[in-house]
Amino acid sequence: MDDALRFNLLGSSPQFAHVLAQIRRVARFDITVLVSGETGTGKELAAHAVHYLGDRAGGPFIPINCGALSESLVESELFGHERGAFTDARQAAPGLISEADGGTLFLDEIDALSSKAQASLLRFLQDGTYRRVGGTQMRQADVRLIAASNADLDALVESRRFRRDLLYRLKVLPLHMPPLRERGEDVVELAQTFLDRLNQRYIDDMPGKRFHPRTIAALAHHDWPGNVRELEHFVQREFLMCEDRVIHAMPDHHASDSRSHAAEPRFNGAFREAKARAIAEFERRYVASAMKRAHGNISEAARMAGQDRSAFSKLVRKYREKAEPAVRREKHSVDP
Ligand SMILES: Nc1ncnc2c1ncn2[C@@H]1O[C@H](COP(=O)(O)OP(=O)(O)OP(=O)(O)O)[C@@H](O)[C@H]1O
Ligand SMILES: [Mg+2]
């Protein structure tokens, strides 16, 4: 796993080992790669690895985030522009494709490219030629392209927001970064490594910290919609904020980085009732999701929740009675 460590790609689950093997394989070919995966799954790290493991490692790695630039700016950033091509263009600029000559251009959030930029990029992929904005001369560059997106590009093709021919060109070597929730034991391994690093880094300023076993169990069962980035932030926050040497926090207690269903509480009625309603709603959802994950097995659900079985089964009964009609309909998903 030396390569993986060199690129800071942590994880030893079979799912991730498969991804690492694919990265090594893909790196050997000098062909366009499309990296897909949810936010925070490590698409940019993977793109780095593909570049530095391949023959172009000695050349430049130039990243550009297409989503962060306006439509017109993306084109001049990528292809460069001639002097006077637009109001601010006092001087000609070569553009990132030219800068990446002999190396790799990493196009992040490629789904954000305008249709005009998509057309120019397609031509560049087909024959390695391009034109600066406002220019007529055809230029050439020897660039490997790695593109990334967390959007469903096939759906964008269907809704005609992304060119089908461009997608086919990009998809020759697809690389999918799996979500953290599908990487089994990696969650705990990553959390532990992030914590170890913080302990090392702050060794002179802070007492060493460790996770409570219940926190570890909760980390393993949280679904991490913001993936590795969210996990890393969780560990950092807890390491810095927790006064105790043992971290007890549960990931559910933090509004997750990329999901906002923990909506701001509305002001309706007395605090005490509002709080009771919120707790009841939380318990109901928590119990339902724990039971679903445990395939209806109360002991297993209790273990995952870090509760003893009798307390947890009381909760299950409480919410099952309330939800009786619904439970009958959905017998398989909720009933033990
Ligand atoms: N396997 C991994 N091991 C260690 N750290 C990781 C891993 N995957 C991702 N990270 C860390 O998580 C963060 C997000 O990674 P990265 O920027 O590569 O994700 P991304 O898929 O490009 O996300 P986005 O779609 O939001 O741009 C970074 O801090 C990165 O170092
Ligand atoms: Mg990224």
UniProtKB/TrEMBL annotation:
<dbReference type="InterPro" id="IPR027417">
    <property type="entry name" value="P-loop_NTPase"/>
</dbReference>
<dbReference type="Pfam" id="PF25601">
    <property type="entry name" value="AAA_lid_14"/>
</dbReference>
<dbReference type="InterPro" id="IPR009057">
    <property type="entry name" value="Homeodomain-like_sf"/>
</dbReference>
<dbReference type="InterPro" id="IPR025943">
    <property type="entry name" value="Sigma_54_int_dom_ATP-bd_2"/>
</dbReference>
<dbReference type="GO" id="GO:0006355">
    <property type="term" value="P:regulation of DNA-templated transcription"/>
</dbReference>
<keyword id="KW-0805">Transcription regulation</keyword>
<dbReference type="InterPro" id="IPR003593">
    <property type="entry name" value="AAA+_ATPase"/>
</dbReference>
<dbReference type="InterPro" id="IPR002197">
    <property type="entry name" value="HTH_Fis"/>
</dbReference>
<dbReference type="InterPro" id="IPR058031">
    <property type="entry name" value="AAA_lid_NorR"/>
</dbReference>
<dbReference type="GO" id="GO:0005524">
    <property type="term" value="F:ATP binding"/>
</dbReference>
<feature type="domain" description="Sigma-54 factor interaction">
    <location>
        <begin position="9"/>
        <end position="240"/>
    </location>
</feature>
<dbReference type="InterPro" id="IPR002078">
    <property type="entry name" value="Sigma_54_int"/>
</dbReference>
<dbReference type="Pfam" id="PF00158">
    <property type="entry name" value="Sigma54_activat"/>
</dbReference>
<dbReference type="GO" id="GO:0043565">
    <property type="term" value="F:sequence-specific DNA binding"/>
</dbReference>
<keyword id="KW-0067">ATP-binding</keyword>
<dbReference type="InterPro" id="IPR025944">
    <property type="entry name" value="Sigma_54_int_dom_CS"/>
</dbReference>
<protein>
    <submittedName>
        <fullName>Sigma-54-dependent Fis family transcriptional regulator</fullName>
    </submittedName>
</protein>
<keyword id="KW-0547">Nucleotide-binding</keyword>
<keyword id="KW-0238">DNA-binding</keyword>
<dbReference type="Pfam" id="PF02954">
    <property type="entry name" value="HTH_8"/>
</dbReference>
<keyword id="KW-0804">Transcription</keyword>
